[in-house]
Design brief:
single chain, alpha+beta, Beta-Lactamase, Helix Hairpins, 5-stranded antiparallel β-sheet, 5-stranded mixed β-sheet, rod-shaped
Length: 443
C-alpha cells in the first residue's frame, strides 16, 4: 500500500503538467487533436493510475473512519458504561471529566458535574477525612484509597470507596484520576455482621453463665443429697440414746429432791437435749423436706400467724416491722408446714442480724406472672461478699457457734427447690440483707 506522501507526489506532477498545457493554450480547452498519440496515451495512463490511487486512498479513509468509530464505541463501553465511576480532578479539586456511572452515582448528568468541587458531594461529617485524603494524594504519588460518605444531588447518602491516582501533566499541574465505588451494601452487611457477632457473644456469655449456674446448682444438689443420706444415718444413731437420756432426766426432774442450783443444771441439761433433738430432726429432714401433701396456702395469712408469734420478740429487741403486702395475692399450692418453716428461718436470721441496734424488718409480697414472691429485708449487719456464695452450704453459719447450727438456710434451700422455687439473697456489709423466695402458684 502506498504511503500518503508517495500518493501525493504523482498527483502534484500531473497537476503541474496540466497547468503547463493550459498556459501554453492561453487558457483555452485542450485540443487533444493537437497532441500526439503517445502524449494522449501517456496522459490517459497517468489519469487511470491516479484514479486507482484515489480509490485506494478513499477505501483507506473509510477503514480509518470505521476504526475510529469502533474505538469511540469501545471507549464509551469501557469508560462511560464502566461498573465504577471515573472522575478526573484538577489539582484544586474540581471535576474536569466524569463518566456516566459517576453521574448516576451522584444523581446528576455527567456534563453538570464538570467544574464542580468534589467537596460539594462529601458528607459534612467526613469533610475533614477527605481533606486529609487529598493531602495524602499530593504527597505519596501512588494509588491511595479511602472510604467515606457521599451525598447525591437528591440528598441521598451512600458509602463510597475512593481510589485516587496522581497524573502529573507536562504543564507541571497534577491531575487526579479517581475511581468511585458504591459500597453501601457492603457497609450494611458489615454492620449486620458486627451486630450479629455482638449478639452472638452476648448469647454465648449468657449461656455460659447459665451453664455455670446450673453446674453450681447441680453440684450443690449432689452435695445435699450425699449429706442427706449421711445425716439421716447419724440422726438415727444419736436419737435412740438421746431419747433414753431425755426420759431419765425428765423422770429425775419430776421425782428427785434437788437443790435450786441442781434444778437449774437439770433444766439446762433437758433444754440441751431438746436442742439436740431438734438438730437431729433437722438432720433427718435435710434435703428431704418431707412427704407431706401439698395444699392451697394463703401466704398473707401464714405470714400474719408467724408474725403474731414473733410480736413479743420484736418488741423486746425494739425491732420495727414494716408490711408491704400485695393488694391481692393468689393462694399457692405448697406443703404449708415446710413453707412456714422457711419463712420462720428467714425471720429468725433477720432478727439476729438486727440485735445489735434498733432494726427494721420489711416484708414484701408480690405476684410475678405465674409465681409469687416474698422478700424479707433487714437493715442489720449484712453479709460479706465472700460469704454469700456459701450461706446455703450445710453447716455454714455467720452466727456464733452457740447461736446457729448452720442448717437453717440449707434446709430452707432444699425445701424451696423441692417446690420448684428459687431463693436469692442480696446484701452489703453494714447495710442489711434481703432474702427473696419465689414459688410457682400451681406448685
Amino acid at each position: 500500500m502506498l504511503s500518503m506522501e508517495n500518493q501525493t507526489k504523482p498527483l502534484s506532477e500531473l497537476r503541474q503538467r496540466v497547468e503547463k498545457l493550459v498556459r501554453s493554450n492561453n487558457g483555452k480547452p485542450l485540443n487533444i487533436t493537437s497532441m500526439s498519440p503517445e502524449e494522449i496515451q501517456q496522459m490517459l495512463h497517468e489519469l487511470q493510475v491516479h484514479q486507482i490511487e484515489l480509490e485506494i486512498q478513499n477505501e483507506e479513509l473509510h477503514r480509518a473512519q470505521d476504526g475510529l468509530d469502533a474505538a469511540r464505541i469501545r471507549y464509551f463501553e469501557l469508560y462511560d458504561l464502566a461498573p465504577v465511576g471515573y472522575l478526573t480532578l484538577c489539582n484544586n479539586g474540581r471535576i474536569k471529566e466524569a463518566n456516566l456511572t459517576a453521574g448516576t452515582l451522584l444523581c446528576s448528568a455527567k456534563e453538570r458535574l464538570v467544574n464542580k468541587l468534589l467537596t460539594q458531594f462529601i458528607h459534612t461529617e467526613d469533610q475533614d477525612l477527605y481533606y486529609l485524603y487529598r493531602k495524602q494524594n499530593f504527597e505519596i504519588g501512588t494509588p491511595n484509597e479511602c472510604e467515606l460518605r457521599l451525598v447525591k444531588q437528591d440528598g441521598t447518602i451512600f458509602w463510597a470507596h475512593l481510589t485516587a491516582t496522581a497524573l502529573p501533566q507536562q504543564t507541571g499541574i497534577t491531575e487526579f484520576r479517581v475511581v468511585l465505588n458504591d459500597i453501601t451494601d457492603r457497609k450494611w452487611a458489615e454492620e449486620q455482621l458486627k451486630a450479629a457477632k455482638e449478639n452472638l457473644e452476648r448469647r454465648v456469655e449468657q449461656r455460659t453463665l447459665e451453664l455455670q449456674e446450673a453446674q453450681a446448682k447441680y453440684l450443690h444438689s449432689e452435695k445435699l443429697a450425699a449429706l442427706g443420706k449421711l445425716s439421716g444415718s447419724i440422726a438415727h444413731e444419736i436419737n435412740n440414746p438421746l431419747l433414753g437420756i431425755q426420759f431419765f432426766l425428765n423422770g429425775l426432774q419430776e421425782r428427785a429432791l434437788l437443790k435450786d442450783e441442781d434444778k437449774t443444771l437439770l433444766a439446762e441439761a433437758i433444754s440441751e437435749c431438746r436442742r439436740v433433738k431438734d438438730l437431729m430432726r433437722n438432720l433427718r429432714e435435710f434435703d428431704r423436706p418431707g412427704s407431706s401433701r401439698k395444699a392451697l396456702m394463703d401466704l398473707h395469712q401464714a405470714l400474719d400467724s408467724i408474725l403474731l408469734l414473733q410480736k413479743t420478740l420484736f418488741s423486746e429487741l425494739n425491732i420495727k416491722l414494716v408490711r408491704d403486702f400485695a393488694v391481692q395475692l393468689p393462694k399457692i399450692m405448697v406443703v404449708p408446714t415446710q413453707i412456714k418453716q422457711v419463712l420462720i428461718n428467714l425471720l429468725i436470721n433477720a432478727t439476729d442480724a438486727c440485735q445489735q441496734h434498733s432494726g427494721i424488718i420489711k416484708i414484701s409480697t408480690r405476684q410475678e406472672g405465674d409465681r409469687v414472691a416474698v422478700a424479707i429485708k433487714d437493715n442489720g449487719i449484712g453479709i460479706k461478699p465472700e460469704a454469700i456464695e456459701s450461706i446455703f452450704q450445710p453447716f455454714y453459719s455467720t452466727k456464733p457457734d452457740v447461736i446457729g447450727t448452720g442448717l437453717g438456710l440449707s434446709v430452707s434451700y432444699g425445701i424451696i427447690k423441692q417446690h420448684q422455687g428459687e431463693i436469692q439473697v442480696k446484701s452489703q456489709p453494714g447495710k442489711g440483707a434481703t432474702f427473696t423466695v419465689s414459688l410457682p402458684i400451681t406448685g
